Amino acid sequence: MDWVLLPLLFYAAAHSAAPLLIAGLGELITEKSGVLNLGVEGMMLIGAVFAFIAAHDGGGFAGGLLAAAAAGFAVAGLFAFLTVGLRANQVACGLALAIFGGGLSAFAGLSYEGKSLPDSVFAFADFAHKKFVHDLFLLFALFMLAATWWFLNRSRAGLILRAAGENHDAARQTGYPVSWIRAAAVLYGGVMCALAGAYLSLVYTPLWAQGMSAGRGWIVLALVVFASWRPGRLLLGAFLFGFMGILNFTLQNWGATVAPEFLAMAPYLATIAVLAAISWKMRRRRSRDFPSCLGKPLPLSR
Amino acid sequence: MKALHFIPRPPEQKAGAQKWAALAAVFLALGLGALVLKAAGASPPAVYKVFFVDPFSSAYTLAEIANKTVTLSLIALALAAGFRANIWNIGAEGQFTAGAIAASFVAVWLLEESGRWAVFAVLAGGVCGGMAWAAAPAFLRAKVGVNEILTSLMLVYVSLLLLSYVVHGPLKDPEGFNFPQSPLFGESSLVPSLLEEYPLYATILVLPPALLASHYFVSRSWAGFQMRVIGLAPRAGDYAGFSRARPVWISFLLTGAFAGFVGAAEVAGTAGQLTPVISPGYGFTAIIVAFLGRLHPLGIVAAGMLMAMIQIGGENGQIDLALPVSVSGVFQGLILFSLLAADFLVHYQIRRRGD
Amino acid sequence: MTKNGTDKKSGGFLLEARGICKSYGALRANDGVDLRVRAGGRHALIGENGAGKSTLVNILYGAVQADAGSLKWRGESVRINSPQAARKLGVGIIFQHFALFESMSVAENIRLGLRRETENAEMLRLSEKYGLRIDPAKCVGDLSVGEKQRVEILRSLLQEPRLLILDEPTSVLTPAESRALFVLLRRLADEGRGILFISHKLREVEELCEEATVLRGGRTVFHGLLAETTRKELIRKMIGAPPPPPPSEMEGGKPDNPSPIFDGGGNPESKKQINSPPIFDRGENPESKKQINPPPIFDGGGGGGDAILCVKDLHLQNAEGGMTLRVPQLQLKKGVITGVAGIAGNGQDELLNALSGETITPPGSVLFCGEPAGGWGVARRCAAGILTVPTERRGRATVGEMSLAENALLGRAGAGGLRRRGFIFPQQLREEAAGIISRFDVAAAGADAAADSLSGGNLQKYIVGRALMQKPAVLIAANPTWGVDVRAAAFVRREIMRLREGGGAVLVISEDLDELFELCDEIAVINCGALSLARPRANVGAEDVGRQMTVS
Predict the structure, then answer these.
(1) Which residue of B has its CA nearest to A266?
(2) What is the pTM of this model?
């Protein structure tokens, strides 16, 4: 065992946690408004592929981020139109988005598989190269965490967003435009998930591979449940899963001889265990921060 | 004031509207798909010719489509039962994989067996593997109340990693030049083909009875009735004293059995051995097949055929038009989106205000 | 309180509604309603369930648009298109079901309700002024119902309403909370605001209000000063002409039975105290405390064998709604229809569920033919012949999108020949449904018609028929004729009586007193979750029961 590496492992875990945190914050806002978007995986992949394409084809780093955000906005807009506008089943639409995102990203990114990004993409960070970009995303994630906390707990807009998710009938009765609030929350969630995907393809790996998010989008959904819809606990959960994500490196470093596949299963099995524990704890009473209208379409007005 | 408003459609009209919505969705998706293809630089008419016309000029392709239709329809039939009761098993891909792994263990164990019963043992192994894999999310949902969507999906990833472990470890062919794959199964463990020249697997013989059974299960069985009631009106289920846990177990075990069965048939048929990649996403595509088929047995077969055509077309297009296989994923998503949008018109009628 | 403060703006009505009509399909919820509320006046709106009160309130608040009629606000014609418009005019409303965000704090709820930022100081000043003390940091979900109501009122008051509408505000309050509310409402009226107080509880109406409007069947049947009428008169207006009471029940007449329980006439106050089992004693009334538990005059237990289903000392704490069900004793006997009178939401649902098996109770608390049956689930009770007809016809008693034939399988005693070895038989289901349709005169397109395609009355005939076809030993029916047209209602009642003639035991839970008096042999009253002992119909009067229902 090499204890000297411990801080480095924490550092690596934080980087592995960053995309979970970014996407988780987006999904948290979406769910707080009362919409369950199961398509996180699809939105992350779409963000990842378009970020890579834009950055690779001369858009640079900023162009990649912008392309990811725009793509996330577009597919989330489609989801919002169906679920918020047409009151379609949110579970089915989320699954459709996950499948569509997987297909579209694979289709769009086919000729980019195995390519690497030109160095010019990271020109702005020349002095420290990619390490610095890693940290940039981590800082962004932490900043957004604080911003989300402030938005939900201190701002009037956040209060109204929570109202829409807590009791949409009362919110509508008071005169708030519940559907528009929800649409905005879905769009924001889409952008955040796409940015998390951009982190994966631009910085974390950095290359494009079909299905490269490897279930992170689904883990994010579990994380939001684990966090009981509280930004602070999302950080804890993301870090926990970030650690799981680098478990194979960690244990190998410590000389464990477990098949790498079993170590790679850890995040998924941990997700199930965490969900079971949370459900067991909450089987009598729901968390206070649970948005009571989650997944329920707003009835059409008379 | 809005000029339009929406009123709920009377229930008698819904069944008819559903069929039209499904057809409309397919055409809408093909239209949107043409735009995507165009954007990607492909020629939509050429692609659609590969999808929907070319297969009929090749018996080989038709047989391939039939095989895939069987696989997709069998999984979708089982999924549909759960969807009716609002139980969302989206981990059929994992149950498929688990079935394939379990079947492979049986097949490798029976390598020397020459009796024809071996293939049944292999298929039974698949059924058991799929059911075992499905039992975990069912247990968690029925006993602890864990959301079955996430658990069943997480187990997909676990099953794929398990598959990778198995082909690299316990089942690796010792004489396979270190390739990650199992030994070729014995002749007696393979699902036979019905035709000499083309691989049309005997699994297709299971489809008609499965269709009948699922039709009877949904419309004639007491358990199927309970599941429909719970899906449509949970409070009516409580009033009638129906258990809420039972539909969860039934739908998961059923899907596990069917997905495991076709998983076994896949490795004991097409491949004849266990390889690191055994499915182009059958378990997920089957979800779309179930929805597009409106959860109806015949609808599911039709939708399964369509999806099989798109998938095979994607594979053939790869060769003919330099089109990626993943184009089928785009179409799957588009069809599902179109269907969900069209469903609005199933549930509501549009009227002018004041009518 | 007197009337000195009221006529500040004599003649000037704050709100004047004339000829308000609103139909939902064939149902005329409001059929020419008139209502006038004075500024500074405390006005009561009374009427039975379904009389059209909530429709009227929704129209006044802009949530629903009237089909016909006119509204005047401070003398000028207005249209109230939306709740926002109503708020702008100065109409504040406190719904029975609060529009609150449970997981948020009091302060957050108030900020949301106001649609603008408030100074905490402003809120504190108002809450101090009106004695509405609530900790603004507390979560609304943790508050008592009374405190929640205070949040609603405070939120409303911050918008400076001229007219405050309160929909059944005391139905959820303890007596002490009610008294505090009345003090506040008087004060608000004295400031010149109009109060529209909607209630069933005549005692409260008399205590608080000066004027009243009585609705029945969607029409205004009375309007005037309370000082100029009697409670008896109001009850008569509310429930329509009471059924001809049996002789012993006539005004002032002494019954043959010497027991004070059967004292049918005389002073209503004294009667109430004697009749009320101690469960009604909520400690607010010093007189009732002195009252000794009357001897069990009508102890059906003595009847022995003919009681099929008995409930004894059932005490069910309800986790969510807070309504605790208390049934000291209830006996359903062969050939007897027992009625449970009460205003909706006083424990009827809980009682029905405890009897149907949807709620499992301690085994000994429910006895079926002497056997402990509290632990039996729905299926076992059905198989034993205990069938229920719940209030909710659609979505509970039937599945709307399924055919009548398939719906024949719900609420069924055992297999009944319709299913064998795990299978159901469509042809037999169709025959069964067709049998119900023809035998009970259900107007339907046939056995294959979807349940949702039937009118309420025909669907109810089908549901009741479905149960009666099985010749149940015990039938429990909740509001069997609620929202059903007159002919269908009469039909359903006749069929229930036929079941009694055939020796069935029946429990009818209903808000309709006419119905209970027409049908039942014995009547019990449920109020605040407590069920009184059932007494023979001959010994209770409609007004007496009506009062018991509204005792607070």
Answers:
(1) B158
(2) 0.81
